[in-house]
Design brief:
Elements: E1 16-18, E2 21-23, E3 30-32, H1 36-40, E4 61-63, E5 67-68, E6 75-76, E7 81-82, E8 86-87, E9 94-98, E10 102-106, E11 111-113
Protein name: Protein YjdM
Family: Belongs to the YjdM family.
Pfam families: YjdM, Zn_Ribbon_YjdM
């Protein structure tokens, strides 16, 4: 019996090792062999701000760079405080409402936890 962990995406038991990577032949998912235990809990993804603080739902953050709002002439200015953020999956990993602008998605690399 194999001592390799099952695939974190499809739970296939047929994973194999290719150098430092583990590969699933059924769904073609690849992950690091050293992070195999952490990859199994992929839903527990840690999202950090620009300076490395761990973000959680409900946190208050400050924008660290002027951000242009796509499709509009509005700009989110440096120092804008955003309350009650929600963490989501995807490229823009913060869902929030900004006073005067409305609902937005932000990247965690452009915010700092207060």
């Amino acid at each position: 019996m194999s001592t390799l962990p099952p695939c974190p995406k499809c739970n296939s038991e047929f994973t194999y090792e290719d150098g430092a990577q583990l590969i699933c032949p059924e769904c073609a998912h690849e992950w690091s062999a050293s992070a195999g235990a952490e990859a199994a809990g992929e839903g527990d993804k840690v999202i950090k701000d620009a300076v490395g603080n761990v973000l959680q739902d409900g946190d208050t953050v400050t924008v660290i760079k002027d951000l242009k709002v796509k499709g509009s002439s509005l700009v989110v200015k440096v120092g804008t405080k955003v309350k009650s953020i929600r963490l989501v999956d995807g490229d823009h990993d913060i869902d929030c409402k900004i006073d005067g602008i409305g609902a937005m998605k932000l990247k965690s690399e452009f915010v700092k936890k207060v």
